[in-house]
Amino acid sequence: MSTTMLLFIALAGVMLLLLLVIKAKVQPFIALLAVSLLVALAAGIPTGEVMGVMTAGMGGVLGSVTIIIGLGAMLGRMIEHSGGAESLAQRFSQALGPKRTVAALTMAAFILGIPVFFDVGFIILAPIIYGFAKVAKVSPLKFGLPMAGVMLTVHVALPPHPGPVAAAGLLGSDIGWLTIIGLAICVPVGIIGYFVAGYLNRKAYPLSIEVLEQLQLAAPESNAPISDRLNPPSAGLIAALIIIPIAIIMSGTVSATLLEPGSGLRDTLSLLGAPAVALMIALALAYYFLAVRRGWSLQHTSDVMGAALPTAAVVILVTGAGGVFGKVLVESGVGKALAEVLTTIGLPLIPAAFIISLALRASQGSATVAILTTGGLLSEAVGGLNHLQLVLVTLATCFGGLGLSHVNDSGFWIVTKYLGLSVADGLKTWTVLTTVLSVSGFLFTWLLWLLI
């Protein structure tokens, strides 16, 4: 099939998906599966392989996020139900003042995002976002949008995350210099993202009923009994329940870098540092400190934890369906066709790295795939560059993978579902923010390229 036809099919698939979700109000899970099927058939994937591709797309995403989302939702439910999120938010707001809270949380998210994968960190922080939003009586978007933006920025640009590490290997850039220069660029990019998110938040976006229930702005099916919220847990305890899994994950990341392969300590820390294991440890601590020590019955505790699963299931299914759509686009050859078109244009190296990566990100959804593919395409073109130039080409590639997060990106669905946004409002906020961050990072990178 011709490159032009493949690109047309991909564009038509995205437009049809937006039409179904925004105009026809089709449930996103159904719309994503239906459009994925149509695109697979139209792109020429053999009929006998279509369901295998779709299943692989669903499994590839859910294999990494299902356990995390489920455990994270339970932990968040325990914290919220006990009144702990509000307790932490009130203490934090009293100490910093309302004007500094968003900035402080954004800085904390920036630091958290360095060792912790974007989706894991965002899910862990979701109950805190709700708690602050409830205390401040504002939309969770005010806190969640800048926090998610800076976390994704460091996820795509800084080691030890897989995209930049793999791109560095393909392009031969030094990991140490990549970390140093990447941090130097990510800081001003994060500041820009903070102000852009504030600008986008000037408008009040309608929230989903699930998020309104979390904020107790709509009547939920089962409010927490008053007795559950008497003597709420201290802010210090809640902070510890959030920090402990993050610290455990960080220990696993650091051990993989500093300790020798095959070391028993390294293997143990790597196991404990797996996000699922770290969250299980945090959930066990929450079970004891928030439930057992506060007099909840075993059945009541089980009911509270179980009540988190229906909401989590919606996030899981829609996220998985987003993975299906992305997988179909990859297998159809859309990304490869687009890359071939862009490489024949003859752009200078730094803009080419950014534009190819950005186009691949927009066409198939995965930032990591976009970064890896671009790195592979440019691996023969970087011969003769010095070590700093190689780092800048790598960063241009990484920042390209940051932008244009939309309906074929599983991360788009995680952010919009947790923050209660419709698809249209997600495109107006999250897609715009990631693109501004992407372009800002590229411009700083290109400026350094021109100066060296």
UniProtKB/TrEMBL annotation:
Question: What sections of the protein cross the membrane?
Answer: 6-22, 29-47, 53-75, 102-133, 175-197, 237-259, 271-292, 304-325, 337-360, 388-407, 427-451
What are the UniProt keywords, alphabetically?
Membrane, Transmembrane, Transmembrane helix
Under InterPro entries, the record lists: Glcn_transporter
Identify the stretch annotated as signal peptide in this record. none
Q: What do the Gene Ontology cellular component annotations say?
A: plasma membrane
Determine if Transmembrane helix is one of this entry's keywords. Answer: yes
> Does this entry carry the keyword Secreted?
no
The superkingdom listed in its UniProt entry is: Bacteria
Q: Which GO terms describe its molecular function?
A: gluconate transmembrane transporter activity
Pfam families per the record? GntP_permease
Q: Which PANTHER family match?
A: GNT FAMILY GLUCONATE TRANSPORTER, INNER MEMBRANE PERMEASE YGBN
Q: What is this protein called?
A: Inner membrane permease ygbN
What gene, per UniProt, encodes this protein?
ygbN_1
